[in-house]
Amino acid sequence: MNENPVVLARCGSYDPDTLEEALGASLAALHLGEDFFRGKRVLLKPNLVLAKKPEQAATTHPAMIHALADILFDAGAASVTLADSPGGPYSAAALGHVYRVCGMEEADPRVRLNDDFTFRPARADGVKLKIFRMISAALDADVIVDVCKFKSHSLTGMSCAVKNLFGLIPGVEKFEMHNAFPELSDFSEMLVDLCETVIREKPFLAVCDGILSMEGNGPTHGVPVETGFLLCSWDPFALDVMAEHMMARDGRILYLDAAARRGLVSRDWREIPLVDEKGDAIADPPVFPLAYPDADAGHFLRNLPNFMGGQFTKLFEPRPKIMQKKCVGCGKCFESCPRHTIRMVVGKKKKARIDPEKCIRCWCCQELCPIGAVGVKQNFLIRLIH
Ligand code: SF4
Ligand code: SF4
Questions:
Q1: Which among 25, 261, 325, 326 has most CB atoms closer than 10 A?
Q2: Is 112 helix (H, G, I), strand (E, B) or coil?
Q3: Residue 374 C-alpha to ligand 1 middle, in angstroms?
Q4: Whose CA is nearest to atom 2 of ligand 1?
């Protein structure tokens, strides 16, 4: 049995009063202790993966930030800073645009939007990561509150509390991580290293915004879906096992396998204590079977023996394709490709092209294309099987 509880609260809207009531009761049910926030510099780590409007469900809703600010200042927090490092440059210009479009500028005047774009080395002593760079805003905080979204994700299958912490790695260093760990199994171990490091170093709380979630081609180009709940826990692994079940993806998320192998969490959601905001046990949480990302069509190939040196999997796995008619030639995919396998072709109009040979299926190009012009090319046979 996992010891760390997860609180599930129904919350059907971002109405400030409704949200604050549900969040406040959820945190009370966790019994964090009076001094958890008192006098502390709190970092809110939202999911600001791309400059998207709140109603597109890719990013943490600003109402979550406002409600949390009320609760944190009431609990005596000394300061509350909001910081994230989306893909691309970690700079004032890039983040200013993201803050604006995502509604963070209007979220709450008491919350400081991070303007320190420095980063420093952090020791991990993990399976894959020994030392890595983390944004200074996180290193300087006393408490980290991971304000994640309940989303489908083309690479990892799900984005929730654990994956959201990848945004503590500064800007383009994230592409280096994809480059260093091209296999999803290795990338998953790295995510667990990162998450373990964060929760070992600081008091930690995860709050999942599952009011408006994203299915399909998340984390940025999926479809918003109303799910109407919040999940809270001080254990990001326990929260994610519960989220995996509530997304109807039991056993599918590799980083949770990695966490379970290390004894960090049970792989069975039934072994995680789940309570409502009054503290009463929930035996049967609601399940929202979110549509899978298109990139997931070859999921089962990962479990096949690695014969032909992985060429078989490479041949049949879905891969990204640029929708030429849609592409506006902005070059964001070109800048974000860890394998430099995208080139910009200048004809009548500038367009992106992918060299499939060197592609590692990290899906960064799809995630960061601002207009959703990166689709999925599926092998005919896999399409039939799927
Ligand atoms: S990011 Fe999207 S629109 Fe921009 S060049 Fe790449 S595919 Fe085209
Ligand atoms: S083309 Fe896209 S999926 Fe392939 S390596 Fe580059 S960014 Fe990753």
A1: 25
A2: strand
A3: 7
A4: 369
Residue-wise pLDDT tens digits, 265-299: 999 999 999 999 999 999 999 999 999 999 987 66
Which pTM does this prediction carry?
Answer: 0.95
Is 322 a pocket residue for ligand 1 (Cβ < 6 Å)? Answer: yes
CB 161 within 8 A of CB 207: no
Indicate which atom in ligand 1 lies nearest the CA of residue 331: 5
**Probe residue for ligand 2, chosen from 294, 339, 367 as the CB with the greatest number of ligand atoms within 8 Å:** 339
Q: Would you state the structure tokens that stand for residue 272, as one six-digit string?
A: 């995680």
Which are the contacts of 263, defined by CB distance < 8 A and separation ≥ 6? none
Closest ligand 2 atom number to CA of residue 333? 7
Q: Report the nearest atom of ligand 2 relative to the CA of 366.
A: 2
Which domains, from first to last, does the chain contain?
Answer: 6-275 (3.40.50.11440), 294-385 (3.30.70.20)
CA distance 32 to 30: 6
46-94 pLDDT tens trace: 999 999 999 999 999 999 999 999 999 999 999 999 999 998 899 999 9
Tokens 């299926």, residue located: 361
CA-nearest residue, atom 8 of ligand 2 = 362
Q: Nearest-CA neighbor of 27 among 42, 157, 327?
A: 42
CB atoms within 10 A of CB 96: 14
- The alpha carbon of residue 287 and the mean position of all alpha carbons in its chain are separated, in whole angstroms, by 20
Distance from residue 303's CA to the centre of ligand 2 (Å):
22
- 295 pocket-lining for ligand 1 (C-beta < 6 Å): no
SS3 203: coil
Q: Tokens for 307, please give them.
A: 């014969």
Q: What separation in Å is there between the alpha carbon of 108 and the centre of ligand 2?
A: 37
Contacts of 303 (CB under 8 A, 6+ apart): none
Query: How much is the CA Rg of the chain, to the nearest whole Å?
Result: 20
